[in-house]
């Protein structure tokens, strides 16, 4: 199931292990998009009002400049299967006051445009950059 592409209309999506490509227009407040295991690429064009989790693996998460995050974007769900993963999270749009960008376990790269919420690298050695707003926390290296 490597490289399989899934479209996401904003409803609950959970995929089995594998390297998934998941594209979302929006993620509704009550929805969770979970890449689970494997090295996933998850991109959201609009608002993340719910939860986007990459799960285990070395994942790439991105929210486009046209989007915003008022929910949670987390690089690793901490499912304890040993696949901590080094994740890349890029939020080109705005993180609102209720938004959380979390690297979780692993050595993560977090790039955020405007942060009015929380940007936290979490465990391990993380690289973080916030262009404006609240500075990142829980990181070891500025980008
Ligand atoms: Ca994953
Ligand atoms: Ca981390």
List keywords for this structure.
143 residues; 44% strand; 0% helix; mainly beta; binds calcium ion; ten-stranded parallel beta sheet
Give a description of the structure.
With 143 residues, the protein is mainly beta. It has one domain (4-142). Helix content is 0%, strand content 44%. It has strands spanning 4-8, 13-14, 20-24, 32-34, 41-44, 47-48, 51-53, 60-63, 68-69, 72-74, 88-95, 100-102, 109-115, 118-120, 127-133, 141-142. Strands 1, 3, 5, 6, 8, 9, 11, 13, 15 and 16 form a ten-stranded parallel beta sheet that branches. The chain has a six-stranded parallel beta sheet with strand order 2-4-7-10-12-14, with no helix packed on it. The N and C termini lie far apart (34 Å). The model has no long low-confidence stretch (mean pLDDT 86). Bound molecules: calcium ion (2 copies). Residues 35-38, 40, 54-57, 59 line the site of one calcium ion.
């Amino acid at each position: 199931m490597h490289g399989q592409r899934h479209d996401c209309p904003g409803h609950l999506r959970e995929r089995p292990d594998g390297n998934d490509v998941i594209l979302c227009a929006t993620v509704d407040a009550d929805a969770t998009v979970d890449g689970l295991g494997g090295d996933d690429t998850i991109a959201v064009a609009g608002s993340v009002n719910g939860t986007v989790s990459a799960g285990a693996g070395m994942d790439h998460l991105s929210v486009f400049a046209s989007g915003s995050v008022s929910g949670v974007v987390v690089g690793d769900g901490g499912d304890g299967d040993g696949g901590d993963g080094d994740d890349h999270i890029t939020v080109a749009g705005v993180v609102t006051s209720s938004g959380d960008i979390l690297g979780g376990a692993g050595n993560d790269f977090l790039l955020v445009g405007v942060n009015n919420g929380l940007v936290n690298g979490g465990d391990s050695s993380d690289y973080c950059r916030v262009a404006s707003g609240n500075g990142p926390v829980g990181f070891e290296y500025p980008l």
